[in-house]
Structures are given as structure tokens and as C-alpha cells.
Design goal:
single chain; 205 residues; mainly beta; 4-stranded antiparallel β-sheet
Length: 205
């Protein structure tokens, strides 16, 4: 309660039940121990620099960490808003590994290696039951999926342009600044289409 934070948005519980907090403007992820209530820096250095692949997360710059998700094995997915990228922190080694995004904002790479694709100011993430990463690529007005098996990225909703629907075929539905995303146990996706003031549901067959 004596700690100072700067623009905190995403809070998740890690595998041990501790709070992980995106301290966005401090470019850090903070950890609150559930037993002691003490806060510490879990990741990030405060620097606005690229994140070195494979480095310890505690010593890795994290440029604008915006949202988090925790995998079944305890790995933590980190989405960097200003860093235009997605990383995975290995729960065992506490090292950070590049998953998607080149670090330069843009909209490219569908159907190819997610590491070579451009994303733009992503702000939401969720993990599907099969482990795939669903990304709210906010400034691209799109929902994109990163396959855990292949490492490929595809857009499932949106085409890079802002809009409002229509309902029906997700490939023809436009969004406007999607922020939040949630995947239910049956695989149904719920999207917070923020500038349209709507929640959209994507039924997965």
C-alpha cells in the first residue's frame, strides 16, 4: 500500500496466486506476494528499449507492458503496447522469449511467422483451451491468433480498418479499437469492441 505505480491496467494471478501487475508507464511488471503483501519488480528495467530474446525477465526492458495471461504450465504471456510485440516468460527459467511482433507498429504478416509480423499497439490477450494466443491487435482493429503449434499468425476478425460489424462472417466484420478478449472453456471468444461500445461473441465450430 506504500508503493507508487503509474498507469496500472492489467492484473493477473500467477500459478502460485501472487498478483502480477502491468505498471505500464514505469515499463515494469510488479509482483505482490500473496503471503506477505510485499511488492517487488518481477520484470522490466524501466527502459524504453527492445526486449532481448532469452534474457532473464528481471533484467529485460519491457516497453509498455499492457496486459498479461498465465498459461496452464505457469508461463506468462506479456503483451507490449508501445513495444508492439508479444513475449512468453518461461515459468521455470524466468527467461523471456519472443513470440510475435517486430517491434515496429504496423499490420502485416498474416499466414506467416508471427515473429516477423507487425502488430500495432496490442492491448488484450487470452489463451484458448488448446494454448493458442488470441491477441486484441487494438490499433489494427483486429483479433489475431498465434498458433502454439506452428508459430503462425492469422487475423480471425477485422481487416486493419475501423468499422462496426456487420454480424455474421467474422472475416467481414470490422471492429473499432478492441481492447479486451476472453476465451471460454468451450472455445467461444468474447471481444470488448471498445469504441463501438459493444461486446462481440465469436462462436468457434
Amino acid at each position: 500500500v506504500q508503493a507508487q505505480l503509474n498507469n496500472t491496467i492489467s492484473v493477473v494471478l500467477d500459478a502460485a496466486g501472487n498478483q502480477l501487475i502491468c505498471d505500464i508507464n514505469n515499463h515494469r511488471i510488479r509482483r505482490v506476494d500473496r503471503q506477505t503483501g510485499l511488492i517487488s519488480t518481477w520484470g522490466g528495467t524501466g527502459e524504453k528499449l527492445p526486449t532481448p530474446d532469452g534474457s532473464p525477465v528481471i533484467r529485460a526492458p519491457l516497453y509498455g507492458p499492457r496486459t498479461l495471461a498465465v498459461a496452464k504450465n505457469g508461463d506468462v504471456i506479456i503483451v507490449l503496447r508501445e513495444g508492439h510485440a508479444v513475449y512468453r516468460v518461461n515459468a521455470q527459467t524466468k527467461t523471456v522469449h519472443h513470440v510475435a511482433g517486430t517491434g515496429t507498429g504496423g499490420y502485416s504478416g498474416d499466414g506467416g511467422d508471427a515473429k516477423l509480423a507487425q502488430v500495432n499497439g496490442p492491448k488484450g490477450v487470452a489463451l484458448a483451451p488448446n494454448g493458442d494466443i488470441w491477441l486484441a491487435d487494438t490499433q489494427n482493429h483486429a483479433i489475431r491468433i498465434i498458433s502454439v503449434k506452428t508459430g503462425l499468425i492469422t487475423s480471425v476478425v477485422g481487416d486493419g480498418q475501423p468499422g462496426d460489424g456487420p454480424d455474421g462472417d467474422p472475416a467481414k466484420c470490422r471492429l473499432h479499437h478492441p481492447h479486451g478478449i476472453y476465451i471460454a472453456k468451450d472455445g467461444t471468444a468474447y471481444v470488448g469492441d471498445s469504441s463501438n461500445h459493444k461486446v462481440r461473441r465469436l462462436s468457434v465450430k
